[in-house]
Amino acid sequence: MNINKDQIAEHNKRLEPVQKRRFEQLAAELSGAERIVQHLVDFQVAIPSWALGTGGTRFGRFSGGGEPRNLQEKIADIGILHALNRSSGAISLHIPWDIPEDYSAIRTLANQHGLAFDAMNSNTFQDQPGQALSYKFGSMQHVDPAVRRQAVDHNIEVIKHGIELGSKSLTVWLADGSSFPGQLNFRRAFQNTLESLQEVYAALPDDWKMFVEYKAFEPNFYSTTVGDWGQSLLYASKLGDNAYTLVDLGHHLPNANIEQIVALLLMEGKLGGFHFNDSKYGDDDLTTGSIKPYQLFLIFNELVEGMDNRSMDHTKDLGWMIDASHNLKDPLEDLLQSVEAILIAYAQALLVDRPALAEAQAENDVVRAQEVLQHAFRTDVRSLVAEARLRAGAALDPIQLFREIDVRGRLIKERGARTVATGL
Ligand code: PSV
Ligand code: MN
């Protein structure tokens, strides 16, 4: 199904008078509202192909209906999101779940929906049917060189798919690690992993980036071979200029100061991209901004400050991706909420009075520094985000329109009530 311009126009016509009043009132109070709205119009967040179906836990999976059955339908789902918010103009694929049968047809379809191909993701954390060697004891860290070779070859194959689609980056997340003390020689595991990554890096086209994603624990519970940002940075630094660290918000030990991690990675020119989600306990993969919106704002505060400090392009120089899983909500509604939360945090970070904050810091005025940050965080910027949508041709209230025109009901009619998307 497609959402047409008339449906959006009719919806916006109804909501526009209230939006106009809210926006004008806020714009009169703020300096630079127009600049912020333009930044918001330009900002795009990639949607992961694996987040369009209902996720599960290790205890079970309660599927919704109308889930995408193949890559074409995943692209169509993201097309719906992008038509509704005009901020989801990219898809991130996971191989082998999303191997295209016909590159040119897939490129054309994505193009029709206004979607680009963001980072390609490899998968050496599961064994695939017919796979020669098992990843049970790791992939790139493995004691057997033949398993490492298989993992390297898989990543090179992922790059090849990406080249055909016009992607420009590869994200490598390894489940490698150990679950018991003594299981691994840490140094050897690191060296094996580094050598394997070096082979993949050598196969990377010059205009591509490699993102090394870290994760503190799970599926391994004693050690992870790319376990934190320090280890990721070590690999990325040894690999070369086109290798970067990728921060997934759910991949830290409790209470880690992610905003500080982000600030230092940016300072070193080694922050490559983001996987947005939220969590209370571990890698919960909940809707972005649903649990810790202040932390999300503080992260964006460092991102904006750090990117501006290096004269970076907010939209192009980092990979912005969601990585979430939905057990209870409609995946598409959940993704709309995540994108909205990201844009709100970004808008609030753009609002921070930087000279006032710098002055407070220079004077050790801790109270004033907090006031400056919280003034921005407590500003209700939703009318700026909505204004950006209006100007970009999106719906003023994407979730409301999604429900008004019964998108899910129509997808169920089209695809069936018992479809299950590929992925986790
Ligand atoms: C692992 O937890 C992760 O965050 C990686 O990014 C994977 O690619 C993704 O989730 C899906 O398993
Ligand atoms: Mn991730």
UniProtKB/TrEMBL annotation:
Highest taxon of source: Bacteria
Coiled coil residues, start to end: none
InterPro entries linked: L-rhamnose_isomerase (IPR050337), Xyl_isomerase-like_sf (IPR036237)
GO molecular function, a single term: isomerase activity
Keywords assigned: Isomerase, Manganese, Metal-binding
Keyword Manganese carried by entry: yes
Name of the protein described by the UniProt record: Sugar isomerase
Biological classification of the source: Bacteria, Pseudomonadati, Bacteroidota, Sphingobacteriia, Sphingobacteriales
